[in-house]
Write a structure and sequence with these properties.
The complex is a heterodimer of chains A (about 280) and B (about 200).
Chain A (H helix, E strand, L loop, with lengths): L3 H14 L3 H13 L4 H19 L9 E8 L5 H18 L25 E6 L6 E7 L1 H4 L3 E4 L11 H15 L7 E8 L2 H11 L11 H16 L13 E8 L8 E7 L5 E5 L1
Parallel strand pairs in A: 1-2, 5-6
Antiparallel strand pairs in A: 1-3, 3-8, 4-7, 5-7
Chain B lengths: L6 E4 L4 H6 L5 E10 L2 H9 L15 E3 L4 E5 L2 E6 L12 H8 L3 E4 L6 H9 L2 E4 L5 H5 L2 E8 L1 H4 L5 E15 L6 H17 L2
Parallel strand pairs in B: 1-2, 2-3, 3-6, 6-7
Antiparallel strand pairs in B: 2-9, 4-5, 7-9, 8-9
The chains are: A alpha/beta (about 280), B alpha/beta (about 200).
């Protein structure tokens, strides 16, 4: 029987060397809609790059990212055992794919060389009712992670109050501030919550949702659609070269908040939004 | 707008060649490019090595903001993925690097601003925007590894690699007249943002 660590290694290889189908389809539509110019050329190069990487089984991007795992674990399976397999899978993949070693000790500045270290890779567990182990993986590049933004409402500068209109203003401000520095067209993840930690966790997990999949709540879904259209009106364009496609999708997650707090966190994924699912 | 035919560029660049380029020109870069990111920039500014202390000629060179992913192959190293990294991190070092070492081309992504644009105007240097995330595609344009500097000290991603490239695609986004496509895009997006945020 195939060991879990080999399954992990394989899902990392797939995630590093190809883009999700929904992302590829959205890039294709953006390419078709974009008139001649640098942004169209950029979209063409992205699609060509994805094809080269997939065919040669080579990483799409030299920054193979921070591996972030979300594991849904059935009853009876031990988190610690799965954690061990994930870490071993990351080690194996770093050598075999290969991945760029990205884990640096903040005290010694020494690179561990195998993409493991304190809190690296990032792993989140939740218990589930189903019988299968489901592990979602995101390879999150530093360029897009550095572009994330955080707001505490109300925000006087943005005239953003504690309501969905305030959230809209934050998201537009964030994308405008980032411009083309994080490799657009982006997927924009938004988290609304009452603590900083909850908002950040929600915004990044939102990036795992497939592009055609809107939020369950119709009010949130409407805001996602409105924001996508408005972000694209900013004309930042693919790679920030000007053009009609600055984002492929906006995904919003929300939680109940404390009466006194209202946080909006924004996570940005680059055009590739490398994510995959392993069902075990 | 009709598609522009790419201009073939040879490195090292002459001042005249750099000054002839304009924002929006698609280019295909040929010759040697030198990778330089965070640690190399910090070193070039703080330690100011002399030409005889370096294995590569920086005068007229094209610097590439990149931290390549390499692997062992056939007893040597092979470039697996080598797209551009975000140039903004080099912003505080670049004006000095351009002027002091006579750099004529910067290849990166996301653009640079202010003092860097002024240094480019004065010294005759252009910014070539490459496609972020196109690491596999761009690695294919690297035909040979000509050498490496500071490999032990800075590691593979941060060392200065001399790559021989063929038809490496990019677009000029900052030219020697001080024009910047990034500034134009930011200005338009600011107007649009103000419209979207007005009550």
């Amino acid at each position: 029987m195939l060991k879990l660590q080999d399954g992990i290694k394989e899902i990392i290889r797939k995630t590093a060397t190809s883009i999700p189908r929904d992302v590829e389809e959205a890039l294709m539509r953006a390419f078709k809609a974009e008139p001649d110019g640098p942004a169209r050329e950029a979209l063409a190069n992205m699609l060509e790059n994805a094809a080269i990487a997939k065919n040669a089984s080579k990483p799409l991007c030299q920054d193979s990212g921070t591996p972030v795992f979300y594991a849904r674990v059935p009853k009876g399976l031990n988190f610690a055992v799965i954690e061990k397999s994930i870490i071993e899978g990351v080690r194996l993949a770093t050598r075999s794919v290969p991945l760029r070693p990205n884990a640096v000790d903040v005290l010694t500045e020494k690179n561990s060389g195998d993409n493991t270290g304190v809190g690296f890779p990032e792993i989140y567990f939740e218990q589930c009712e189903e019988d299968t182990l489901v592990i979602d993986l995101s390879l999150k590049g530093a360029g897009s992670e550095n572009a994330g933004m955080f707001y505490k409402l109300p925000d006087e500068r943005l005239k953003a109050e504690r309501d969905l209109e305030g959230v809209r203003r934050c998201v537009l401000d964030a994308v405008y501030s980032v411009q083309g520095r994080a490799c657009p067209p982006y997927t924009v993840g938004v988290g609304i919550a009452g603590t900083r930690v909850a908002a950040a966790a929600l915004s990044r997990k939102a990036l795992m949702r497939k592009l055609p999949e809107g939020a369950e709540d119709p009010r949130i879904k409407e805001l996602e659609e409105k924001l996508l259209a408005q972000i694209n009106e900013l004309r930042i364009g693919a790679m920030g070269l000007g053009g009609g496609c600055t984002a492929l999708g906006v995904k919003i997650n929300h939680a109940h908040r404390h009466t006194g707090s209202y946080f909006v966190d924004i996570s940005i994924a680059c055009w590739a939004n490398r994510r995959s699912r392993l069902v075990w | 707008m009709a598609e522009k035919k790419p201009i073939t560029i040879e490195t090292p660049l002459t001042e005249a060649a750099a000054r002839a380029l304009r924002v929006g020109d698609p280019v295909l870069i040929n010759g040697i490019v030198l990778t330089a990111r965070d640690k190399v920039h910090k070193y070039l500014v703080n330690k100011r090595p002399l030409p005889q202390d370096m294995p590569f000629e920086l005068a007229g060179a094209a610097l590439y903001h990149a931290g390549p992913l390499m692997k062992e192959a056939n007893g040597g190293l092979e470039v697996v993925a080598a797209g551009p990294t975000t140039s903004q991190r080099m912003q505080m070092y670049e004006p000095f690097v351009i002027r002091h070492y006579g750099i004529r081309g910067i290849i990166g992504k996301g653009g640079m601003t202010g003092d860097v644009i002024r240094a480019m105007q004065e010294a005759g240097c252009v910014y070539f925007h490459a496609i972020g995330g196109a690491g596999a595609l761009l690695a294919g344009k690297i035909k040979n590894i000509e050498g490496v500097w500071m490999l032990e000290e800075f590691g593979r991603a941060e060392a200065m690699w001399a790559f021989r490239v063929e038809d490496f695609p990019a677009v000029v986004t900052i030219d020697t007249t001080g024009a910047s496509l990034h500034a134009q895009v930011e200005k338009l997006s600011k107007e649009r943002l103000e419209g979207l945020l007005s009550p």
